[in-house]
Amino acid sequence: MPAPSRWAIRAALVYLLLGFTAGAVLLAAKGGLGSVPWRVLHPLHIEWLLVGWTAQLTMGVAYWIFPRVSLRRDVSGSPRMVWLAFAMLNVGIWLAGIGAIAPRPLEGTVTLLGRLCEVSAAVVFARVMWPRVRPGLAQM
Ligand code: HEM
């Protein structure tokens, strides 16, 4: 398994843990859990599980298992670009999550920056992976 995949999958597992913990706290808070405003965990729960866990796990596994070789041509793609996508996705997750609970007027700007990082990560990753959407050597 290539290094970017290992790190993306490890990071995804950390977000799974964070997201489930936040979900459990939100659930317990519904039954009354002191006067702490646990509701701030709501946007973080969503961000951690939908982007941090689901999207990142998919990207990590895709980079690992998509066909790397086309007839005598290596199409595995630049690991540097995948590291860039990995970094932008994770910066985006935290900016978008924190932006959703930041005080006004920071809220909008931070969230927007986070979403821009996430979209850029998706664009870079799709660019690297595009040539790898092809039959494997065994099917040629
Ligand atoms: C991959 C797994 C999960 C995903 C993708 C997910 C996603 C979401 C999303 C999108 C919402 C927002 C729903 C809305 O606002 O209408 C939400 C809310 C919530 N989730 Fe999760 N969730 C997951 C797992 C869990 C787990 C394991 C727990 C509990 C242990 C949990 C507890 C909650 C609670 C309490 C809310 C707040 C509901 C409310 O608005 O009162 N979630 N989740």
Describe this structure in words.
- The protein is mostly helical and about 140 residues long.
- It has one domain (about 5-65, about 75-135): Four Helix Bundle (Hemerythrin (Met), subunit A) (Up-down Bundle), CATH 1.20.120.
- The protein contains four helices and two strands.
- α2 (about 40-65) runs antiparallel to α3 (about 80-100).
- The radius of gyration is 18 Å and the shape is elongated.
- It starts with a helix and ends in an 11-residue tail after the last helix.
Task: Name a few traits of the molecule.
two-stranded antiparallel ribbon; 140 residues; Four Helix Bundle (Hemerythrin (Met), subunit A); 4 helices; binds protoporphyrin IX containing FE; mainly alpha
Chain-wise SSE layout:
Layout lengths: L2 H28 L10 H25 L3 E2 L2 E2 L4 H23 L4 H24 L11
Antiparallel strand pairs: 1-2
The protein binds protoporphyrin IX containing FE.
Specify the CATH architecture: Up-down Bundle
What structural category arises from helix and sheet content?
mainly alpha
**Gyration radius over CA:** 18 Å
Overall mean pLDDT stands at 92
Low-confidence stretches: none
* Helix and strand sequence: HHEEHH
Count of DSSP H/I helices? 4
Q: Into which percent range does the helicity of residues fall?
A: over 70%
CATH topology: Four Helix Bundle (Hemerythrin (Met), subunit A)
Oligomer: single chain
Number of strands: 2
Bound molecules: protoporphyrin IX containing FE
Number of domains: 1
What's the arrangement of strands in the largest beta sheet? Answer: 1-2
Strand content: under 5%
| Largest sheet data | 2 strands, antiparallel
CATH classification class: Mainly Alpha
